[in-house]
Amino acid sequence: xxxxxxxxxVPPAINxxxxxxxxxxxxxxxxxxxxxxxxxRHHVVMADLLAATGREIARVTGTEDGCxxxxxxxxxxxxxxxxxAGTDLSRIEAxxxxxxxxxxVILPRGHSVHxxxxxxxxxxxxxxxxxxxxxxxxxxxxxxxxxxGPRTAALLYVQSHHAVQKGMVxxxxxxxVGREHGIPVIVDAAxxxxxxxxxxxxxxxxxxxxxxxxxxxxxxMICGSARHMEACRAQYAGIARPMKVGKxxxxxxxxxxxxxxxxxxxxxxxxxxxxxxxxxALPGITTRVxxxxxxxxxxxxxxxxxxxxxxxxxAQLADELAAAGVxxxxxxxxTGRLYVDPRPLNPDEEEQLVGHLTTLLEGSKGHQxxxxxxxxxxxxxxxx
Length: 384
Ligand SMILES: *Cc1c(COP(=O)(O)O)cnc(C)c1O
Description:
With 384 residues, the protein is of the alpha/beta class. Helices cover 38% and strands 16% of the residues. It folds into 2 domains: 28-259, Aspartate Aminotransferase, domain 2 (3-Layer(aba) Sandwich); 266-372, Aspartate Aminotransferase, domain 1, CATH 3.90.1150.
């Protein structure tokens, strides 16, 4: 088992934090692994494979066409590039210099997120100039329309728990503004689970990750009109070249898309209730089940850590678990709360998690941590 893991000194991690890039995205199904090895065994005409994968993306998203990418991050850069340079080869080859093409990408300030990298940088990589409007917690329709001018290339809407959820202009309003001014709207729906919903909102280009909700290999996709998708794929002769998708990945993505939703586990509510009841017995821990802040059908067990009776605060507890190879969702550790995300965690790993927590909390009255016990730094700026 795990021979290469051992050789490299990088053992498998127990992931209770979500679909995190820092923990390798998704664990792949046997069917996806088989598809990737099938793809790896032969040469193919890559342009044909990209187009065929685009048709699969179109089918599952209910759109005209699709463009496969290495991830949602490159999807945002490529979508912007497509709107700045279109299919004009000299413009494509000049990016990220947009020349005299309209290149401003307007986004609500509360959507200027960092998901592991800043979204502003991806806009710039695609030749766009980010124009943030409004304030971090207050953006209206008027802020968007007021910023539109002859240099505007796109509106960008980030559908994510990373974005500010209150006080923001809605997607419907953003699309209205786009329609009124003839400006296309890009939606970054990287981690969203409903692949058909976001294109029906009227968004022109929708970007998803293939390695998050879909459970595919490290990959992503853009979907939308045939004209926009042709322009997206054309960027592989330009800024998208260093983001090229391999044949193995395309095979794996297609398999994952075909299987997606077939055995949907639902929101894991009952499973998290059971876990919450067990963990509530530990000293210093109060639990409850909470639903996803971005409205997806995900339930998580929240552990509120009382530093007094637990003997350490939430961030320390997360570090100690990480040192044992167990990663909880720690976006809110500074407020004393950790979460167990059920999606990447199998039942056996869930038992190991309970075991490690029990050992740490019940065996540690007066426990003195050695400097060398310090776990790796937290998984900062995690994905979803
Ligand atoms: C994760 C994420 C991305 C990047 O997706 P990758 O597939 O890892 O490239 C982009 N935007 C948002 C909002 C994300 O959550």
